[in-house]
Amino acid sequence: VIRICCMASHSNYSAPPVSEFILICFPNYQSWQHWLSLPLSLLLLLALGANTTLLITIWLEASLHEPMYYLLSLLSLLDMVLCLTVIPKVLAIFWFDLRSIGFFPCFLQMFIMNSFLTMESCTFMVMAYDRYVAICKPLHYPSIITNQFVARATIFVVARNALASLPVPILSARLRYCAENIIKNCICTNLSVSKLSCDDITFNQLYQFVAGWTLLGSDLILIIISYSFILKAVLRIKAEGAAAKALSTCGSHFILILFFSTVLLVLVITNLARKRIPPDVPILLNILHHLIPPALNPIVYGVRTKEIKQGIQKMIRRL
């Protein structure tokens, strides 16, 4: 049901408040949505399968009960929540035409997306610090990167980003929705939802912009600083093959982090240049950003790690 209210200045009529929204995925390309569902389904299965395998391996293998692998577990959990928050609803729209989403579920999805994306960025930053200590201060690593450090880092990651992201859905939910309830997106992003409101959304948009760039920007700066020190230390290593091994590991990590940040930057640019770029492009990028990093993270961070490879092989042999 699409509600449109006509707020005439000479009338006492007021339409009932919006209780649900209608998600319209790819408004210009409705015909090929079913074809898109196939690669999205495969990516979802890959992301969930790879992250579940990684979590079970770390849980079962006693030798992996170390701080670095606990951080990998945290990253996998965040990835799985992000996937399950967004993609099942997108597939339900494609397969069963279930386009409606309730008021509360919409803003809950908005909160999880905003908070968990920044939690993932913050986890990357903590992992970069872990690699910095391991390579630049190896003798101090056991005393600095402890289980207690991981517990405190996890509390910091969750608390900082949840508290900073909470005002986004709250500000959006407090707006009056008396216009059409059609969201031209597959997911409840703040901008897609709030622009349907009758109220001024300037503060809403400003808060998300400032909070998002403060959180993600500070994380990226600290990550770049950490890897700069790592690169400097690696280039000094004279042991044969040690420098190449360290560069291979840290290089793949840094590329994945840059990919995560670059996709966010592309999303911002495409939203700013909406008039020049088809509206379906940022929608597709937003969906892929909730799928590709979760699918790649366990492969780059996990499968390329010798100890995790051995743990997976042991687990397979037990089966």
Please provide the ordered H/E string of secondary-structure elements.
Answer: EHHEHHHHEHHHHHH
* Number of E strands: 3
Helix vs. strand class: mainly alpha
Binned, the helix content reads over 70%
In what order do the strands lie side by side in the largest sheet? Answer: 2-1-3
Given as residue ranges, the uncertain stretches (5+ residues, pLDDT < 50) are: 1-13
The portion of residues forming beta strands comes to under 5%
Tell me the name of the CATH class. Answer: Mainly Alpha
Q: In angstroms, what is the radius of gyration?
A: 22 Å
- Tally of separate helices: 12
The name CATH uses for the topology is Rhopdopsin 7-helix transmembrane proteins
Question: Main β-sheet, in a few words?
Answer: 3 strands, mixed
- Spatial shape: globular
CATH-level-4 superfamily name:
Rhodopsin 7-helix transmembrane proteins
Architecture (CATH level 2) name: Up-down Bundle
Average predicted local confidence, pLDDT: 85
Oligomer: single chain
Cα end-to-end separation: 51 Å
The total number of structural domains is: 1
